[in-house]
Each structure stands twice: as structure tokens, then as C-alpha cells.
Write a structure and sequence with these properties.
The chain has 13 helices and 14 strands. With 333 residues, the protein is α/β, with parallel strands linked by helices.
Length: 333
Amino acid sequence: MILGMRFIVYGAGGIGSIIGGHLFRIGGEVVLVGSERHVDAVKKFGLRLLTPDITYTLKIPACKTADELAPFRGDDVVILTAKSQHTAVCLGQLKNAGAPRNLPLFCAQNSIVNEPAATRAFDNVYGAVLNMPAIFLTPGEVIHPITGNGGLIEVGRYPASADELSQRVASALLEAGFACKVNTHVMRAKAAKTLLNLNNALEAITDAKGDAAAYNLATRTEAENVWKRAGIEWEDFHEFEKRSKAIRGKNKMPAGYEGETKRSSTWQSMTRGTGNVEAEAINGDIVKLGRALGIPTPYNETLCRIAEDMARKGEKPGRYTIEQLTEMARRNQ
């Protein structure tokens, strides 16, 4: 049993509900903060957490607002799992609900923009890089389609160190079934993961149809050129992929869900019609840095612009082909 910490999983969708659910099922004190529909379903029926081996129905505490968390406690630990486009809103909600500056906050999100943003509101900020599958298409239900372990998680104190709390959180996540450890250079690993996440918008726009290799390489090359000029450090993309695959479990759908498709969080957001996606915080961050440094980033700019536009209009994945996107990017060079 995990003692001495209350885990507040803020922005609990797919990843957050999986992390919170596994911590809760082994005896951790956990509260999910999520969307109205998701929280209503969890409160009424419990959180359905489906894995290849067991389907859990967890009567896990859940709430819709930060105000419901008050008063904050000295043993609170926030695991921020909201999409990166919602980070500013989440930070403001926590502070306006009375969260103190010393509240520990772990950014378990895609992109490398969240940790520096979090330091504006909180002093104890930690990075967390994740490599695990999660499917969240139905309120109250999340699918965790992996066996062997729950996936790779590495945590570290921002910007580049470790402390007792990072080790305690890593130990709790390890006990909950994840392949978790402390990484004092977690932001380098998150940058490598970001290079992989640059592909999320392309998958959503095209519905994963066509040969994406050349376009994906172009987006990564743009990011690496921008980061090198800006002095941003990252772990080698291929080395990160190699060690992640060696550590994490193997993807496997639960029985009865073999027909479900494991797609990126951007594809899932577009499929659910949320009205927004992460492209601005992932591809868009490369575009903004590129503009500041005078480096063209047409492949990332095209993905960001098209994905955000499709999300705003409520369009489903598959509107454009890779060939069409490539032509748009070339025209923007």
C-alpha cells in the first residue's frame, strides 16, 4: 500500500485515468479531476479500466473542479495529465482554488512546453515522460492495451535533477505496475518523445493512411534544426525508441476489444470531437521557435494549421492524404 501521498490526477482522460486507476487499485489515495461527462460516469458506475488480463471497476474518487480538492494538504502530489493546450487553464484553476506554490506538480504530458510554464505558478515542478498505450473514447471507460508492464514512465525534477519525492513517486508507479524509474535528464527524454509525437497530427489528419515515413522524417529534421539553434538538448530519437521498446510491455488488446484501433491522443481527440488538439503545443512550438530563429518549418506548420482547423470544425480523421499535405508543405517552403 502507498502511504504518505494523495495523488491528484488533474486532467484525467485516458492516460490520467490509467495512471490514477492503477495507483488506486493497489491502495493509493487518489482523486481524479476530469471532464463533466467522464466524472459523472465514474461516480455512477465506477472507472472501468480494461487490461488484457483483468477488467477493473474502481470506485475511485473523482471531481470536476479544483475547488472540490480544497483544502489542499501537505502530502498532495499533482500528476498533470491534461492535454498540453489546457495546461495554462489547469494551472490557473489549481492556484485560484488555493493550491500553494510549493505544491509538487508532475507534468505527465506530451511536449516540452509544460514544465517551464508550470514554474510560473509552482516551485516544485517535475517532468514525466511516458511511453504507453491508452484508448479513451467512452466516458467512464479507459482501455490499457499492454501486457508485461503498464508502460515506460520516467520522472525527474525540472529541469535536470532528482530528489526524494521523485524517487517516492517513481516507486509508487513501479508498484502500480509501470516500468518506472528516476531520470535526472528527463527533459532530454521528453524531447525525444516529442520528436515521435510530431507524427500525431499527421496520423489524425490522414487517418493513418499512406506511407508517412518521409513526412515524419521532415518534421523531425525541422525540429532538430530548430532545437540545435536554440540550444535545446534531446536524447537521440532512435536511442530513445530502442530503449523504450526494450523496457515497456507489449501491446495487446483486451478480449472482446480486438477490433479497437490503437491511435494517438490527437486522433482520439479528433474522433471524439473535442474541438481542440495538441498540435499547437507540439508542432506549433517548433513553428514558433523557427520563426524566432529565422528557420522555416513548413512541414510542422502545415500539420499544426490543418489539425487545429479540423478540430475547430469538428471534422473527423481522414480529410487529407499525405500527398496533399506534402504538396502544401512544399508550397510553403
